[in-house]
Every structure is written in structure tokens, then in C-alpha cells.
Amino acid sequence: GQNIDQPTEMTATEGAIVQINCTYQTSGFNGLFWYQQHAGEAPTFLSYNVLDGLEEKGRFSSFLSRSKGYSYLLLKELQMKDSASYLCAVRDRGAGSYQLTFGKGTKLSVIP
Amino acid sequence: DAEITQSPRHKITETGRQVTLACHQTWNHNNMFWYRQDLGHGLRLIHYSYGVHDTNKGEVSDGYSVSRSNTEDLPLTLESAASSQTSVYFCASSGTSGSDEQFFGPGTRLTVL
């Protein structure tokens, strides 16, 4: 089974940088995904990490440390539209396994 | 453009009724998934399918069933709706590469009275 932990809520100021952490415990690991979900909408894909290190995509970056069971999502130059929930999800290593286990999500509020 | 759609978007039903939620994708993805999302629980996997005639139980499958007769569709059936099944339901699909993300449908808000 898998256990994924992330903070429930965070608040940050427009223009600032925020880091959303995710820790996981899993019997096998085959990749970590971050999704963004605005209220009342579907989750949308942000990033994927399977090897240790930082993946950068514009204002968003995601980091993974497999030995520590740890990832973070870094959002730079925050904008009001970044107010959303951010979901961390882990894929198990099982053969032919494509299902994801999601954390409960971190609700980010961006204030002026 | 390829897409994934769900219908209905909103549904109110009564306890004990059978309900079917539709999911249709035009990505030609082999993998399809059903989740429910509730406050305090996040997204939880109900059932998933890796191809035609393949179905598997997820974490919270009791009271739900799916069937996969073609690549595009994975309908979710609640055999006898219960108030505990009031939730928002998301369908998703993905390719079969390790890095393939899941694409989510817009969701169905189901209320069981």
C-alpha cells in the first residue's frame, strides 16, 4: 500500500515563491505526478518525476528524492490564478501498473 | 482535438436506485480509471481498466461495477445507490508509457437522497 502526506492548506502572497511538500511511503515506486485542481474543475497535469532531481517547467518546478520519499512543487512569481488545490500522486512499481494513489491535496490561497 | 467527456454532469437520485455514469474518451487510450472525490479524502480509485474486457477493483470498489466493451467507454454503475455514494466522480484515461499522465474528465456530481 501507499501513504502520501501533504499539507492541507497554505497561503502565499502574489509575486512570491511557495513550496508545497509531499512525502510518501510505498512498497514500490514508479513515478510521482503533480496535478493542479481549481475549485469545481477537473485535475490537470503539471509535472512528472521518476528520477532524483529537479524538473523545471516555466514558473513551476518539481523536485524528487527517492531515498527520502520526498517531493516538492515550487511555484514562482505567484499569480492570483494559482489559487487552487495541488495534488501529489504516486505510481506503484507493480508490473503493468498504471494506477495512481493521490494525496489529499494542498489548498493554496494566493493573496494580494 | 482528443477529449474525455462524462455524462451526466449532475445527477440526483434516490437510495436504492441503479445509476450509471458514462465516460467516453477519444484519446484511444487503453487505460481508463474511475475516482471519487470527497472532502477530507482526496481522489480515491474505484475501478480501472487496462483494455477491452479488462476490469480491476480499486481502493473503494464496494457497491460499484464497470464494464469495458470497447476502447472509448468505461461506464460506472452503482447497483443500489446509497447516501454514502454522494460524491463527485471523475473518469480519467492514460496511455501506456511510464511517463504518461492521466487526463481527467470534467466530473459528475452525484447526490443520493
How would you explain this protein's 3D organization?
The complex is a heterodimer of chains A (112) and B (113). Chain A has strands at 2-5, 9-13, 18-26, 32-37, 44-49, 53-57, 60-65, 70-75, 84-91, 100-102, 106-111. With 112 residues, chain A is mostly beta strands. In chain A, the strands form two sheets. In chain A, strands 2, 4, 5, 9, 10 and 11 form a six-stranded mixed beta sheet that branches. In chain A, strands 1-3-8-7-6 form a five-stranded antiparallel beta sheet, with no helix packed on it. In chain A, strand 7 (60-65) and strand 8 form a beta hairpin. The N and C termini of chain A lie far apart (41 Å). The model of chain A has no long low-confidence stretch (mean pLDDT 94). Chain B has 113 residues and is mainly β. Chain B has no helices and eleven strands. Chain B has strands at 4-7, 10-13, 19-25, 31-38, 42-51, 54-57, 64-66, 76-78, 87-94, 103-104, 108-112. In chain B, strands 2, 4, 5, 6, 9, 10 and 11 form a seven-stranded mixed beta sheet that branches. A four-stranded antiparallel beta sheet of chain B has the order 1-3-8-7, with no helix packed on it. In chain B, a hairpin with a 2-residue loop joins strand 5 and strand 6 (54-57). The termini of chain B are far apart. The chains are: A mainly beta (112), B mainly beta (113). The interface between A and B is medium-sized, with 22 and 26 residues.
